[in-house]
Amino acid sequence: MPLTAPRLWAVVLAACAGQFLVVLDVSVVNVALPSMRDTLALSETGLQWVVNAYTLTFSGLMLLGGRAADLFGRKKVFLAGLALFTAASLAGGLAQEPWHLLAARGIQGMGAAILAPATLTLLTTSVPEGPARTKAIATWSAVGAGGGAAGGLVGGVLTDALSWRWVLLINVPIGALVVAAAAVWLTESREETVRRLDVPGALLVTLGLGAVAYGIVRTDSAGWAAPSALGPLVAGLVLLVLFVLAEARSPEPLVPLRLLRNRAVSAANVAIFINGLAMFAMWYFLSLYTQNVLGYTPLQAGFALVPHSLTIVLGSKVAPLLMARAGERYLAVAGAAMAGLGYLWQGTMDAQGGYVTTILGPGVVMALGAGLAATPLATIATATEDPGEAGLLSGLFGTGRTMGGALGLAVLSTVAAARTDARHDAASLAAGYGMAFRVGAVLLGACTLFMLAALPRTLKRAPVVPGRDPAPAPELP
Predict the structure, then answer these.
(1) Residues with Cβ < 8 Å from 93, sequence gap 6 or more?
(2) Do the domains 259-457 and 7-186 match in fold?
(3) Rounded distance, CA 67 to CA 273, Å?
(4) Handedness of CA 120, 126, 128, 134 (dihedral sign)
(5) CA of 363: how far to CAs of 255, 308, 309, 413, in Å?
């Protein structure tokens, strides 16, 4: 029986609120990083791990979170993830030592990994396939993109007006409110065919990704051939190989390898991974550039990125209209190509950059491209004829995006540091950040070519029983 319009809106609002919070916390700390460094005496590597402790646990455990939603119930898992996320936000806001903050950020990532797949699964299992689901996913994508983009403004306002602690503490009242509302609004659903969780697989993929990211970060100070960098890199790759072998032998794997033989699923997830390698670092480097090179305050840096936020939301919201005309494949290709051009433009930044030509212009092009690519990729990656795979596909999509972001930040930060060569004057920092954007442009160019070749021209839709019309979906604006 299709959901009524009020109940459908309750699902969409809850899913979007949860998605906004978990994506906001990927970027909200960026503007606050200089203040965190001064208060807690964090090193440059420590600053990266304020971000990566969250994103790596987030990405590594998201597959487990998606499967847990199918097994234990989407509402129950949504509430549990949001409660853990909120409690960890409180602990992080009260941190007194660097390890307190890093541990809290890691636990936040665990909560986000439980919560995030449930948000998309709530939509794909509650909203009937067709225009209504496309609009719901577009809204979810726009809110998620807006959360990442709004992080700079929210972080700047809170850091300037109160302190960096409030970029984490602000989650506590919002999270409590959403938990209370979701407990009343949402109805429970689960997939009866899922019987167990693949905990060993989740541990292998999380530890593997963490080791690879740590090894990449260590190359900044130790070099690629040093045992302290090469050891974690090799160990991480071995763990990831063990993960694939474990999945092939598991009776109920975290990632059934048969899914990767589905062209739409595998190609869309590879594309979102490559996009994540470049896209996520945009907010990190722009926040550092505006403050460390142009001398903006945290509040000014936040306001400087407001047009980026609005543009990425606009791109996500107009994507369904363009998908109906051009198709998912070509819109994703066009969006990634546009973002790549913006990255090339941004890569020309220097120490005397003006706001319009150095931040606003390239930022709008990058953000619009990112917004246009997000919705079609999410639609392709989660299209399935089996409702039992909804949570898994949502988790796989989120893992690819966030994993790409975490590793991309580690790689591009190393690229920037190598170009800067330990110099901290404005010109050297600008040169390092510009090099990171130019490498990001190369990644997006490669992603554009890959999507053009690999994404399917049409999607396999759920079959319609002959003689039976599909139930109409409640209308979404």
Answers:
(1) 165, 166, 167, 168, 169, 172
(2) yes
(3) 20
(4) negative
(5) 36, 6, 10, 19
116 and 22 Cβ atoms separated by less than 8 Å? yes
User: With respect to CATH, is domain 7-186 assigned 1.20.1250.20?
Assistant: yes
Task: Spell out where 246-355 has E strands.
Answer: none
Q: How far is CA 104 from CA 28, 44, 51, 122, 399, in A?
A: 15, 19, 11, 27, 20
C-alpha distances (whole Å) from 58 to each of 63, 88, 108 are 10, 13, 8
- Residue among 170, 172, 48, 191 nearest 118 (CA): 191
Letter for the amino acid at 277? L
Asked if residues 371 and 311 have their Cβ atoms less than 8 Å apart, the reply is yes
Answer whether 123's CB lies under 8 Å from 23's CB. no
Q: How far apart are the C-alpha atoms of 119 and 13, rounded to whole Å?
A: 10
* Tokens 């990632």, located at residue: 255
Cα–Cα distances in angstroms (integers) from residue 216 to residues 28, 357, 369, 417, in the given order: 23, 32, 28, 12
Which stretch, 19-23, 83-87, 298-302, 403-407, has highest mean pLDDT?
A: 83-87
C-alpha–C-alpha distance, residues 66 and 61, integer Å = 9
pLDDT above 90: residue 140:
no
In this predicted model, what pLDDT tens digit does every residue of 53-77 receive, in sequence order?
A: 887 777 767 777 777 776 777 778 8
Task: Tell me which residue of 129, 143, 150 sits closest to 12, measured CA to CA.
Answer: 143
CA 31 to chain centre: 18
Q: Does residue 26 contact residue 356 with C-beta atoms inside 8 Å?
A: no
DSSP 1: -
Under the banding of pLDDT at 50, 70 and 90, the label for residue 129 is low
pLDDT of residue 1: 38
Which candidate, 309, 30, 282, places its Cα nearest to that of 167?
A: 30
Q: Is the pTM of this model over 0.85?
A: no
What DSSP assignment string belongs to 50-67? Answer: HHHHHHHHHHHHHHHHHH
**Gap between the Cα atoms of 8 and 2, Å rounded:** 9
Q: Tell me the one-letter amino acid at 453.
A: A
What is the domain partition of the chain in residue ranges?
7-186, 197-254, 259-457
Query: Per CATH, is 259-457 categorized as 1.25.40.280?
Result: no
pLDDT band at residue 179 using 50, 70 and 90 as cut-offs: confident
